[in-house]
Amino acid sequence: MTATLQIQRLTAEEKIWRTGRLIGQTPLHEIRNVFKKPGVRIFAKLEWQQLGGSVKSRPAFNIIKKAWQEGKLGNGQHLLDATSGNTGIAYASICAALNIPVTLCLPENASEERKRILRSLGVNIVFTSRFEGTDGAQTEAKKIYRENPGHFFYADQYANVNNWKAHYETTAPEIWRQTNGKITHFVAGLGTTGTFTGTGRGLRNFNAAIELIALQPDNPMHGLEGWKHLETAIVPKIYDQSVADHFLEIGTIEAYEMVRSVAHLEGILISPSAAANLLGAIKVAEQVDSGVIVTTFADNADKYSEAMEHIFN
Which of 9, 54, 261, 266 is buried deepest, with most CB atoms within 10 A? Predict the structure, then answer.
C-alpha cells in the first residue's frame, strides 16, 4: 500500500492528530548582536518553523480542530474567513492536509507572493478593496456567510476565542519551558490580538509578575502587514485591553531598518512585523536593568519580496 493511499484511508480524527504534530514547538532564538546589554537578554520565537509558515498556524489549527470536533466543519462546508495573508495561508495549508475547501476574503493589495501561495493551495479568493484593509475583508466575509450560511463555516478569526486560546494553550507553556521559567517580559504587536492576549494570559498563570507590553503602529497609514492601529480600525472582539501592562508605538520605517540590521548582524531574514516586535523588545530592554524579554517573529521574509527589494536596495 502506497503512503498516499495510507493517508487517504486515515480517519478525519487521525488526520487532525497528525496535522497537529506539525503545529507549534517552534525554537526560541536569542538576539546576540543587534542589541547587547549586561543583565538583559532578548529572545524571539521563530514562528515560521511550522506547517503554514507563520505564527497564525496556531490559531488556524485550533479554530479548525474545534470546529471539526463540534460538527461545524468537515461535511463539505467551505472554511470562510477574512485575512491579510498569513492566517489564510495557514488555513489553506492545514485544510489541504485535511481535504477541506477554503474561501478567503483578501484585500486586493496583498502581496503577490501571498496570492500565488493561496492559489497554489486551491483557495477560492474573494478580493476586497485595498483602501479598507482587513476591515473591508471582514465585512465581505460576513456578507457571504449571511447569503449562504449552510455552505460555509465562518471561522471569524477576529472574534473566535479559539484564536487566543491557541496561544494560551501552546505558545505560553512553550516560552515558559524554553526560558526555564525566567521570562520577565513578553512583547508582541496587536493585529487580531490573539498572540498577545492568549500568550499574555497563559504566562500570567505561570508568574503573575511577568510584564506584558503590547505594540501598535504609530499611525493609521502604517506599513506593518497584519498589525492594526486600534484607534482607527475595527477592534477585534477577542481583544482585552486589560491584559497589557504597557503600550508602545512602532514606526514602519524603523521596522524596515531593523529588518536590514537583523539580516546583517544576526543572519536571519525576517518580516517587517517581526522586526517591529524586536524593536518593541529592544525599547523595553533599554528601560530595564535586568530581565529576560521574549517576543515572537511571526514569519520570515519569504512572502515579502517587494518590501525586501525596497529595504535592501
Answer: 54
- Residues spanned by the domain of 112: 57-154
Bridge partners, 37 (sequence order)? 40
pLDDT digits (tens, 9 = 90+) for 228-282: 899 888 899 999 999 999 999 999 999 999 999 999 999 999 999 999 999 999 9
43 is a domain residue? yes
**Inside any domain, residue 15:** yes
Pick from 221, 187, 172: which is nearest to 295 by CA? Answer: 187
Q: Which of 107, 127, 154 marks a domain boundary? A: 154
Residue 33 burial (CB count, 10 A) = 11
pLDDT, tens only, 134-174: 889 999 999 999 999 999 999 999 999 999 999 999 999 99
**How do residues 267-285 score in pLDDT, each as one tens digit?**
999 999 999 999 999 999 9
Residues ≥6 apart with Cβ < 8 Å to 89: 52, 53, 54, 56, 114, 117, 118, 121, 303
DSSP secondary structure string for all residues of 80-130:
EEE-SSHHHHHHHHHHHHHT--EEEEEETTS-HHHHHHHHHTT-EEEEE-T
**For residues 91 and 122, is the Cβ–Cβ distance under 8 A?**
no
Asked if residue 144 and residue 126 are part of one domain, the reply reads yes
| Same domain, residue pair 180 and 279 | yes
pLDDT at 180: 98
For β-strands 40-46 and 124-128, DSSP reports them as unpaired
- The total domain count for the chain is 2
- DSSP character at residue 38: T
